[in-house]
Amino acid sequence: MKRRILAAQRGMTTLLVLILMTVMLMGGLALARMTESSFLISGNVASREASIHAAEVGWNTAFTTIKAMAAENAAIGGWYFPTIQPDDANGIPAVDWSAAATVPAGVGRYTVNYVVDRQCTVANVVTASRECLVKLEPPPPAGDASEDKSATAQDYQPPTWRQFRITVRVTDQRGTQTWTQALVNR
């Protein structure tokens, strides 16, 4: 009688082992797929960070060039515009990017282009505070020793700095583009 019970249980153990092995195989495949996805995600994040660092080269070059400009009322090449340029649907200036300034960045993995448009409505500025986007310097504190005692609060004319929008396009070897923008004062 014991032999019949043992014979009936042998097939059940094999079936149970096969089910457990199938579940473990599926778990292993899911774990491998998750690991592959995380490697792809970390690679994309690293590529994005590297392109942002390359964009900083474009910002610094453009800002240095803006500071050194003697006259800002005329367009220069295809990279500087004395007036606000129209934007596309993404907020990127609608300009000819093939004529934009190019900056060497790194070992040639990235191509960095930039354009600068002064945030003014006219090229020949007469009144910056009306024709341009400006940054105003606040008046000095009332108790400031350097303040001219004969001048009143109405006489104070704060200096204005015109603002420039720097738009940088970074293109990697795969053709992926990263766009960044910054406003700077001059």
What form results from the Cα inertia axes? elongated
Q: What's the main sheet like? A: 6 strands, mixed
State the domain count: 1
Strand content: 15-25%
- How are helices and strands ordered from N to C? HEEEHEEE
Unreliable runs: none
As a whole number of angstroms, the C-alpha radius of gyration is 32 Å
How many helices? The count is 2
Number of strands: 6
Helix and strand composition category: alpha+beta
Give the mean pLDDT: 85
| Helical residue percent band | 25-40%
Distance between the termini: 100 Å
Entry keywords:
alpha+beta; six-stranded mixed beta sheet; single chain; 186 residues; elongated
State the gist of this model.
Helices cover 38% and strands 22% of the residues.
Structure description:
The chain is an alpha+beta fold and 186 residues long. The chain has one domain. It contains 2 helices and 6 strands, in the order αβββαβββ. Strands 1, 2, 3, 4, 5 and 6 form a 6-stranded mixed beta sheet that branches. The longest helix is centred in the first third of the chain and has 67 residues. The protein is elongated, with a radius of gyration of 32 Å. The termini are far apart. The model has no long low-confidence stretch (mean pLDDT 85).
